[in-house]
Amino acid sequence: MDPNPATSVPEVILSSSGRRMPLLGMGTATSPLVGSGATKSAVVQAIELGYRHFDTATLYQTEESLGEAIAEALSRGLIESRDELFVTSKLWCSDAHPDLVLPALQKSLHHLQLEYLDLYLIHWPVSSRPGTYEFPIMKEDFMAMDYAGVWGAMEECQKMGLTKNIGVSNFTCKKLTDLLALANIPPAVNQVEINPLWQQKKLRDFCKSNGIILSAYAPLGAKGTVWGSNRVLENEVLGEIARAKGKTVAQVCLRWAYEQEVCVVVKSFNQERMKENLDIFSWAFTEEENKKLSEIPQSRGCQGQDYISDQGPFKTIEELWDGEI
């Protein structure tokens, strides 16, 4: 991990391309959806504060707002070049078909007003009926994913220079193993739910051994979303450590992820909290605190069915997650 002198956010080098990714990013997913003006304003503020990594997706409907914010930051001289930013977007399930990957990426680039992405992810390891951008996905719209065809199309997008890196989201160890067996370009990143209450040690170890960087969504438990809760922010152990260190529970969660060498994508449109989220790199946990953190009882917050209705071709949620709990 290397420091970025412009923003003081450490970076990691992605093995498949050699490009640098800031280990703290700003998410743009909101539930319920907020106005485009609020998203644009928050992103501009974030750039002013020093954020350089931004995460969006077709499903989030925030690509256009993010693109407008980047254009404004450039026009105001907040950044000198788009190259100073690391922008991630994601392929939705209904576009996860070999012939639809390139058009979907081109559409995202058009919305973002960009010539390339830094990272393009397969949002979920499932496909759905083309042309449907529903949330959650209905049972009748599910289709089996052609992993070889879809990943081959992702690889072509990287070769074309439309994205500098490709990766996945919500992939288990088993699905990553299957993908690595057929990939010519391995996934650079796997974005999954990670927080102190769902530490994913098995997946962290697997990804580390295979040169895949883990990126965490819901690092604070996704409070305010349809599937999230207050369980992380209200955890007694996290609260105790936060009080002892004079930090917020959110800062404790983000620092914990950083110490696990996990990239964190955190969403806040509140300026003070955006500042607090950046203040996690100049302090560390004691050995005793790390022991307490490692002993927190584990349970997943995102159960999958909150994104996927009735699982389609999957009989149970465990089958969707390969039975990996």
Automatic annotation (TrEMBL):
* Active site per the UniProt annotation: Y60 (proton donor)
**Pfam family example for this protein?**
Aldo_ket_red
Return the Gene3D superfamilies for the record: NADP-dependent oxidoreductase domain
Which residues hold substrate? Answer: H123
**Top-level taxon of the source organism:** Eukaryota
Tell me a GO biological process for this protein. Answer: secondary metabolite biosynthetic process
Matching SUPFAM superfamilies: NAD(P)-linked oxidoreductase
| Keywords in alphabetical order | Oxidoreductase
Where do the NADP-dependent oxidoreductase domain residues begin and end? 40-296
Q: Does the keyword rRNA-binding apply?
A: no
Task: Write down the position(s) of the site called Lowers pKa of active site Tyr.
Answer: K90
Q: Which GO terms describe its molecular function?
A: oxidoreductase activity, acting on the CH-OH group of donors, NAD or NADP as acceptor
Name the InterPro entries for this protein: AKR, AKR4A/B, Aldo/ket_reductase_CS, NAD(P)_OxRdtase_dom_sf, NADP_OxRdtase_dom
Q: Does the keyword tRNA-binding apply?
A: no
Its name, as the record gives it, is NADP-dependent oxidoreductase domain-containing protein
UniProt organism field = Linum trigynum
